[in-house]
């Protein structure tokens, strides 16, 4: 029984790894005051970039592929930063456009990679009889690191101040635009890393729509965990367990499989509604979603 529970936990953590990485990226964005709804597109582009590099040759360096995924995510996120920080466009509209651009471009450019073999994948580490991906370990370390950065460093305090009161930060000499640009691109790099996990470790292949809505769940997860990186670990395990349960129950239950496929998305709506009733949305940065114009109240 104990082994069954431990196996479920390990599997839930594995499935929750891309959610955790993408959620951390979104937290980084939003702590700086910028909403990015384009996480799904960033993950798709990151997954494609990683697979394209890793499948280019049997001798391809997988960590170079990981770096390519993060670079692709950061560069695509730069479009969002340019639109929302420099041009002060609506952050929600820009994010939705980014999601469409990212998933569309990945689907189009990835056609030639469908069905191609991956010469080697990122191998799991075996600990105590269980397999765990290096991506999972990295995600846990990044969550702890981001929590420390936001709460215990000067630059983390600067980022939070830009998300809470950019005018006050500007008066103190902070370059609000630069901080937001870096936060958006850093968040994009983490979303790209989440995509790399899918194509290099979890599925070790490329297919159109392989992100399967995980990016949208990650966006909602940010609200669910109250913009706190360490809570994101528990939230990702929770939703990872739902996906694990979905796979375990399909074929072993008279309930149609579509019901299990919809479970994570239905639960996103439920937990967001509950969070709203409890006032959890009040934890959001005060300037979240608002463009900053110097001298404007």
Question: What are the SSEs and their pairings?
Answer:
Blueprint: H1 2-31, H2 39-54, H3 62-86, H4 91-109, E1 125-127, E2 130-132, H5 134-152, H6 154-164, H7 166-171, H8 176-202, H9 214-224, H10 229-249, H11 257-277
Antiparallel strand pairs: 1-2
Summary, kept brief:
This protein has a single domain, classed as ABC transporter involved in vitamin B12 uptake, BtuC, CATH 1.10.3470. The chain is built from eleven helices and two strands. A hairpin with a 2-residue loop joins strand 1 and strand 2.
Secondary structure: number of strands: 2
Rough shape? globular
Amino- and carboxy-terminal Cα gap: 59 Å
The level-1 CATH class:
Mainly Alpha
In which order are the strands of the major sheet placed?
A: 1-2
Structural class: mainly alpha
What number is the mean pLDDT?
88
Low-pLDDT residue intervals, each spanning 5 or more residues:
none
Radius of gyration in whole Å, from Cα?
19 Å
Please give the domain count. 1
Subcellular location: Cell membrane
Keywords: Cell membrane, Membrane, Transmembrane, Transmembrane helix
Protein name: Riboflavin import permease protein RfuD
Transmembrane segments: 9-28, 34-55, 62-83, 89-109, 130-150, 181-202, 214-247, 259-276
Q: Top keywords for this entry?
A:
2% strand, 69% helix, 11 helices, two-stranded antiparallel ribbon, mainly alpha, single chain, ABC transporter involved in vitamin B12 uptake, BtuC
